[in-house]
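Hi P.,

Sorry for the delay on this. The queue was packed all week, but I finally got your sequence through. Input first:
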Amino acid sequence: MEVIQSFTIDHTRLKPGIYVSRQDNGFTTFDLRITEPNREPAMAPAAMHSMEHLMATWFRNSQAKADVVYVGPMGCLTGMYIIMTGAYTVDDMRQLTIDCLKWILTQTAVPATTPETCGNYLLHDLPMCKWESARYLHRLQHDFHSEYTPLHVTLDNGMTFADA
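Then the structure:
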């Protein structure tokens, strides 16, 4: 089996920021890393769920809406993935994300939080989502990171990999 590319990133050195996770077949997957893995607490599931609803709503209504394929949380709850078509750079995604986070901070409700519109409509926390959004906004504006540190692993059979 091939190694999944995201498992080749040294998560002990990964800082909050925006990274290109992969580019293939005309798609770019952006890693919006909100918390520092294994050093800071992961986001609470309810806050992450609210952030997913808000970010998906904003991105699918932004000037980039025609190119948005997917907006969703990482299973580890340390960030979001955004998949785009088109020629978007990390700097483009940084500005889009900054604009999105500023919008989130003005919201008084999370969209689509009824039993009819959400599969877990009670699992939302707008105040904590806004707290995480404000912290991430500050980091994107004042302590920006966008370069992964590769993880070099030697397998039991002596083979090595640095990327998938």
